[in-house]
Amino acid sequence: MDPVLQPENFINRHIGPSEDEINAMLSELGYDSLDHLSKTVVPASILDQGALNLGAAQSEHQALTSLRKIADKNIVNRSLIGQGYFDTITPPVIQRNVLENPGWYTAYTPYQPEISQGRLEALLNYQQMVIDLTGMEIANASLLDEASAAAEAMSLAQRKSKTKSKRFLVADTVFPQTLAVVQARAEPLDIEIITCPAEDMAEHDDFYGVLLQYPDATGEVKDYSALAATLKDKGAILCVATDLLALTLLTPPGEWGADIVLGSSQRFGVPLGFGGPHAAFFATHDAYKRSVPGRIVGVSEDASGKPAYRLALQTREQHIRRDKATSNICTAQVLLANMAGFYAVWHGPDGLKAIAERVHAYTVLLADQLEQAGYPVTGQFFDTLTITTGNKTADILNAAEQAGINLNRKNDTTLSLSLDEKTDADEIQALCSLFECAVPDFDNRPETRLPEKLHRKSAYLTHPVFHIHRSETEMLRYLKLLEDKDIALNRSMIPLGSCTMKLNATAEMMPVTWPEFANIHPFAPEAQTAGYRELITGLEDMLASITGFAGVSLQPNSGATGEYAGLLVIQAWHNSRGDDHRNICLIPQSAHGTNPASAVMAGMKVVVIKCDDKGNVDLDDLKAKSEQYADTLAALMVTYPSTHGVFENDIVEICEIIHRNGGQVYMDGANLNAMVGLAKPGEFGADVMHMNLHKTFCIPHGGGGPGVGPIGVGAHLKDFLPGHPVIKTGGDQAIAPLTAAPYGSALILTISWMYIKMMGAAGLKKATQIAILNANYLARRLSHGYNILYTGQDGLVAHECILDTRAFKTDLDVSVDDIAKRLMDFGFHAPTMSWPVVHTLMIEPTES
C-alpha cells in the first residue's frame, strides 16, 4: 500500500526512541540491526523467528472503531441482581480527575514515600472510612475482591484462634461466589469448610472460626450479637462480610463482636465492569495488625517534625519470610480504593447516609406493595428483597428483561432484587408494573424495615477531610493537590526493574469508561454479554498465540493469584492421574517472594534450588534435587528471563530435567516483556505461565493496583482452567474459582486488547527488541562507573540491569537509599532498590 494511504502508525507513538536513536544505540553496542542483537541476547534454543499470528497493526482510530463494534454487542440493562455487585454513580469530578487521569492511574506502588504522599493520603482516607464504617480498630489499604478477602480472613482467623481445630463454619447465606473461593482456598490448607445456617452455629463444638454475611445474600438483616458472644466463649474468631453503604444505617459489626470485617467497596463510585476491578476492604483488631494481609498506611513525622505518610506494613514480607509468609498478595486495588475513598470525601457522612436512606426507603415502598399484592418478601432488610413468586417466576423474569431490567432468579419459585443509588420513583413504578401491584405514595416516607436494635447510633467519618470538600471547586483542588505530591508516568520516567512501567496510551484507556463495558453486571444473562465474551475470547486467543500455550484463563486478578491458579491447575492434573502424592515444588533462591508463598498456599512443600555466581539456576543442584524428589516432584517455579534480568542459556534443559522426573514447569511471567515476538514459553518447555497484563500488556499500575495475571497452559492442562459457580468458565475438570467474578477484572481487559491490536505482530516484536536494546545501552553506558552485577552471553542483559552500589556504602558511606533520594531530588522516580540483591539498583527502561 502506498505510504500516503497508510493510517497513522501507533507503534511509533508507543516506542520511545526514534530510528536515528535506535541506530545510534545499536552502534554503541556493536550491532548492525535489532535482529542481530536479538539473536545474540536470546538463546538459539528458544529463539522463534516466525511472525506472530496477530495480523497487521491498527491505528488508534481503527482499533477504537473495532472495539466499539464489539462493545455495541453488549446490552446494558438495568441490573438489580445484587449478590455483592451494585450499580453506582461515579461522581464526574472523580471520574475525570482520578479514573481518567494519568496522574493517578500511571503511578507506581507507594514504596518510596517522598514521591507518594498524595496516594498515601488518599489511601489513609480509605482506611479511615473503612475503620469508621465497620467499627473496627485498623484497616488495610485494600485487597483484591470480597471473596478472596474472605479467604484471607479464614486464614488469619486460624492463625489467631486459640483452638487447634481445622474447621471453619460458613453461613449458608453467604454469597455463592464467596463460598466457592473460600472452599477452594481451604482445601490445600487442610481446612474443613462446614456450611450451615447461622442460627445452628452455636451448636457446633469443633471449629476455629465463622463467616457471616450482614446483610445476608437473601437481603435479611439479622442480629448476631448473641452468636458473637457464644463464639467468643468458644475461642472462635468471627469474620463478617458486609456492605459499607448499609453500615451508615446499621450497627457496625465491630460494635456487636466481630473480629474481622470485610467486603467490597465497589458501590462507592466504582463501575460494575462485568465484575472488576473492585477494591475489597479488610478491617480487624489492632492486636492482629502484624497478621493482616496487604498494606497498611501509617502516619509518621518527617525530618522537620511535620506529619508524613508511609507504608507502615506492606506485602513485601514475602521477600523476607518467603514460604513462611502469611499471604502471597503482592498487589492491591489502589486506584479503586482511592476512588471509593474520594467518594466518601465527596459525599461526606451526611451524603452517604442520605443515599442509604433513599435506597432503603425505595426498597420499603416496593416491599409494602409486593406484600399487599400477595408476594411474601424478606422480613427485615436494607436494599435487597427475596420474593416468593410461585409459578409466576419465569413470566416476571421474562417481562423484566423485556423492560430492560435484570432480576436474580433464586429458584423456580423465588427471585430477588437489589436496589441501589440509581433507583428512583420511575424505577419503582416499572417494578410495580412487572409484579402487577399498586404504585406506592412517594410523598410519604415509609417506616424502616431495619431491626430496631440494629439502628446505628455511633458517629462515622468525623475527620475534617470528610466535611470540607462539598463544592466541586474544593474537591477539584484537593484532588490536584494530592496528585501534585506524587510522581507518575505523566511527569517522569519510572525505571523500576521487574515492574515494567511503560506507556499506558490514552486510546487504550478510553474504553474503560464506555457504558457498554462499565455498566455490565458480572452475572448478567449471557444474551446481554456477547460483546464481553467476544472481547475475552479474542484476548485469550491473542495471548495464547503470543505465548504458544493451548489455553488461557483471564480469571486471576493479580500476578500472585495467577501463580496460585497455575499451581492448582498443576496439582489438579497430577491428582487426575493418581499422583496426588506429588507435593514438592522446586524454587530457585533468586525467585520473587510470592513464588514460595503461593506454593505453600497451594499445599506444596518448597525445596530451594541454589543459584550460581552469575545468578543462574545451579544445574547440578537442580538435577540432584529433581532426582532426589522424583517420586514426589510436583513442579518447578522459574522466572524467565531470570529475576536478575538475564536469559539463561539452559532453560530448555531445565524444563527437560523437571519433565524427566515427573514434574511440571510453572514459569513466572513477570519478565514476559523481554520475550513477546522472540520466544514462546509454551513451545520451549513451560507447562503453565502467568502473564502480568499490568506489565507487558499495558494495564497501568494505578498506584499499586489493579493488576491482571491470567495463566496460559499446555493442551494437557486446558481442562483444568478455573471455573465459577454462577457463570460457567474453565474446562471440563475445572479447578474451583480464584476470584469473585467469573473473568476477574474484566473491565480493564479492554486496555490489553487495544494495545495488542494497535501494535500488531510486527509492533509487539519491535517493542520487545527496543526494550532489550534500551536496557543494554543503559547497562553499557553505566558500566563505565558502576559494576553491572549480572550479564549473560557476550556481556548482555535481557530487559533490565542491576547496578552494584555496595562499594559506595563501603568506601564513602553512601547507601543505595541516599542515591535513590538524590534522584528524587531531581524529579526522577528511583529504580528498584535492594532487590533482588541488597544495596543494588535494578533498572528497566522498557521500550516506551
Describe the structure.
With 848 residues, this protein is α/β, with parallel strands linked by helices. 36% of the residues lie in helices and 13% in strands. Helix 4 (60-71) packs antiparallel against helix 25 (749-782) and helix 5 (92-99) runs parallel beside helix 16 (472-483). The longest helix has 39 residues, at 334-372.
Tally of domains = 4
What is the C-alpha radius of gyration, as a whole number of Å?
27 Å
The major sheet is characterized as:
7 strands, mixed
* Global outline: globular
Main attributes of the structure:
single chain; 848 residues; alpha/beta; Aspartate Aminotransferase, domain 1; Aspartate Aminotransferase, domain 2; 4 domains; seven-stranded mixed sheet; globular
In short:
It is built from 27 helices and 25 strands. It is an alpha/beta fold.
Task: Describe the SSE topology.
Blueprint: H1 11-14, H2 19-29, H3 34-41, H4 60-71, E1 78-79, H5 92-99, H6 102-105, H7 117-134, E2 138-139, H8 146-160, E3 167-171, H9 176-186, E4 192-196, E5 209-214, H10 225-234, E6 237-243, H11 253-256, E7 260-264, E8 280-284, E9 296-301, E10 307-313, H12 317-321, H13 334-372, E11 384-388, H14 393-402, E12 405-406, E13 408-411, E14 414-418, H15 425-434, H16 472-483, H17 506-509, H18 515-518, H19 530-547, E15 551-553, H20 559-576, E16 584-588, H21 594-601, E17 605-609, H22 619-628, E18 633-639, H23 651-660, E19 664-669, H24 681-684, E20 688-691, E21 711-713, H25 749-782, E22 787-788, E23 801-804, H26 806-812, H27 816-825, E24 832-833, E25 840-843
